[in-house]
Amino acid sequence: MVSSDSVNSRVETLASSGIATIPKEYIRPKEELINIGDIFEQEKSTDGPQVPTIDLKEIDSENEKVRERCREELKKAAVDWGVMHLVNHGISDELMDRVRKAGKAFFDLPIEQKEKYANDQASGKIQGYGSKLANNASGQLEWEDYFFHLAYPEDKRDLSIWPQTPADYIEATAEYAKELRALATKVLRVLSLGLGLEEGRLEKEVGGLEELLLQMKINYYPVCPQPELALGVEAHTDVSALTFILHNMVPGLQLFYEGKWVTAKCVPNSIVMHIGDTIEILSNGKYKSILHRGMVNKEKVRISWAVFCEPPKEKIILKPLPETVSETEPPIFPPRTFAEHIQHKLFRKSQEALLNK
Q1: Residue 300 falls in the annotated catalytic set
Q2: CB 203 within 8 A of CB 282
Q3: Is 217 a catalytic residue?
């Protein structure tokens, strides 16, 4: 049976209750509020730097010059920004639309139905429907609900956790995860070559075909009566190797670039790709894991489909690869497992939150 407490804890419930002001635990600290503005106005702006768009159409071209130009652009975006819009990435518009429709249809269900899939962080059951994934020591909450599950490899996923409604959810999401896995291989190959490594090296270092995990998180950001006071997801870098993001063409992604928050444009049929901490560590900081956050608004629901490509938690020691280290470029990251890296980030975050109280 679904408890009224869990239903009431959902941001969607708050958003649809008719409140004009948001509860204090969702209000961001003063230092953050000075740069939270109208996301629609910010997305229209053409001033300042823009997130690069990388066309992958020629990534495997038989023409060496054409192929190298495409790969060089991808590498440059990974070095300069650590985030980019990918177009002509090889995943069909039809499949992406099916994924978006299926995810939206799940979130359109009554909350009581969604609660059947509720996770339970306290008991370690992290897959499923939930809220406040990044609750921190300051007690601040984020304006989002989400659905989280492992999507790939096939033998490691638990389909009993995946939504049974809508009917197309499992098939569309499984197909999309499989195609993203192939895209990850292509990208990792180019990033390896960009470091002067053999093309399969980075993929091997993050777990290879057998053990690199693709974790799907559908972020649901309801309309917010005071978007100038809240964030959908607070500023963070991704711990993953790579993150791929689809969205419903409602702006909200901001990147901290050269000391300022830059709003990502909505590029039709693109997939946003982030370089995560894992690749930043392996490359000894040559590729960037950029600080980013999710904004909310009072007009439109925003939904994003983030797929995190993660190495196995305990099996691999993440540290700068020997080829990326020299006398003039010593290692800037200590050796850690992926699990230790996550714990380190959580500890640092809780310490900062306590200091800022």
Answers
A1: no
A2: no
A3: yes
Residue 318 · residue 337 · CB < 8 Å: yes
| Neighbouring residues of 201: CB distance < 8 A, sequence distance ≥ 6 | 192, 195, 321
Which of the 8 DSSP states describes residue 21?
S
- Number of helices (H), then strands (E), belonging to the chain: the values are 12, 14
Predicted pLDDT at 28: 93
> Is 236 an active-site residue?
yes
**Among 117-121, 218-222, 252-256, which is the least confidently predicted range?**
117-121
Q: Are 245 and 286 in contact (CB under 8 A)?
A: no
The DSSP bridge pattern shows strands 253-257 and 242-247 to be unpaired
140 vs 29: CA distance, rounded Å: 9
Contact by Cβ (8 Å): 287, 205: no
Please say whether the beta carbons of 220 and 303 come within 8 A: yes
Spot the catalytic one: 75, 89, 238, 341.
238
Nearest Cα to 77, choosing from 199, 203, 194? 194
Whether residue 238 lies in the annotated active site: yes
Q: Which two tokens stand for residue 201?
A: 């090296």
d(CA 241, CA 307): 11
With a threshold of 0.85, does the pTM exceed it? yes
Residue with tokens 């690199």: 212
Q: Could you tell me the two tokens for 228?
A: 């100038």
Catalytic residue among 89, 217, 274, 288: 217
